[in-house]
Design goal:
about 50% helix, alpha/beta
């Protein structure tokens, strides 16, 4: 069996099983009911939707990213009072550890790490044309239109306040890609998570970046290669070699010109596919990318040797022997 086929088999083995899926449905349904029963009228909650985890094709059985978006009518962020009260409420109701984050609440229930993100509801703004768009695409389009109209002279923190309002669309972004892309994403995430470890305070932004880099690598392999999983993994690892030359964006949910010139002119550039105002590789994250090249180079070398020898056990064989402390 070829290395590529073994990589694909390993990736497929990471897919969520039915038991875990049912567990996610049960836990998130209970959380949703508790919140809606207790806070819907007080905080004008329009709806609660799912993001990562249940409705994603790239979640791993050994690391579940369960995001829930709580959409608020009329009020604009920040939502400090809602976040504080929800954290206290969930800690009491589920008797599990819970902590606040900038945009919501992190809670662990039945072994599942769940992010509750508080977001402004834009479904009813009607600022743009929405023919044929899904609910989350309308939410995204309205949010972007609002920010374009209102961000003149505003600073980056103003835009960041509305980040959760645009993130649900990533489910659609995920679905529009092939099974081949999903398989590479699972391998890339497994590689990164094994390097960095997992905890309640895990930096989800870095994992998001890894996932998007895998998307681009898979797209290139599908366009220029032969949908070979080993070659796609090589393409992914190569993206870390010259991080300051990275220039990646997608225009499924917005026009390239929607991104401010000051943002899209930055290098390295990895525009959030759901949010044209965010370059995910700005600031200190770019240094993390440079640091990761040393690890990626080691994995690249090990994968090359495995390909030449025609032997491969699992992804752990491709990891460096020393742990990564800089992640």
């Amino acid at each position: 069996m070829s290395i590529s086929k073994k990589l694909r088999e390993f990736s497929d083995a990471l897919i969520l099983d039915e038991e875990t899926t049912l567990q996610i449905i049960d836990v998130t349904s209970r959380i949703k009911k508790e919140i809606m029963d207790s806070f819907r009228r007080r905080y004008l909650i329009d709806r609660i939707s799912h993001g990562g985890g249940l409705h994603r094709k790239t979640s791993l059985s050994n690391f579940l990213e369960v995001n829930m978006y709580v959409y608020i009518n009329e009020r604009f962020p920040p939502y400090h009072d809602i976040i504080d009260e929800l954290c206290s409420f969930l800690q009491t109701s589920f008797k599990n550890r819970c902590k606040t984050s900038r945009h919501g609440v992190l809670v662990e229930v039945s072994g599942l790490k769940i992010s509750l993100l508080i977001a402004r509801n834009f479904l009813h703004e009607k600022l743009t044309n929405h023919d044929g768009k899904s609910q989350c695409e309308i939410q995204n389009a309205e949010g972007i239109a609002f920010l374009i109209q209102n961000m003149c002279g505003k600073t980056t923190p103003f835009v960041e306040l509305f980040g959760p309002s645009l993130q649900e669309t990533y489910v659609e972004f995920d679905r529009c890609h092939s099974e081949f892309t999903h398989a590479l994403i699972r391998l890339a995430k497994y590689w990164f998570l094994k390097l960095s470890g997992v905890g309640l305070e895990f930096n989800s932004t870095l994992l998001y970046i890894i996932e998007l880099l895998a998307v681009r690598a898979a797209e290139r392999e599908e366009k220029y290669g032969n949908r070979d999983m080993c070659n796609a993994l090589f393409r992914f690892l190569s993206l870390f070699e010259l991080p300051h030359e990275v220039d990646i964006f997608w225009t499924r949910f917005y026009d390239y010109e929607d991104s401010p010139y000051s943002v899209r002119n930055e290098r390295p550039l990895l525009l959030d596919p759901c949010n044209p105002f965010v370059n995910l590789l700005s600031g200190e994250i770019a240094q993390r990318m440079s640091d990761l090249w040393f690890v990626a180079a080691s994995t690249y070398s090990r994968l090359t040797n495995a390909q030449k020898a025609g032997t491969f056990g699992n992804m752990d064989f491709l990891l460096p022997e020393t742990p990564c402390t800089f992640l």
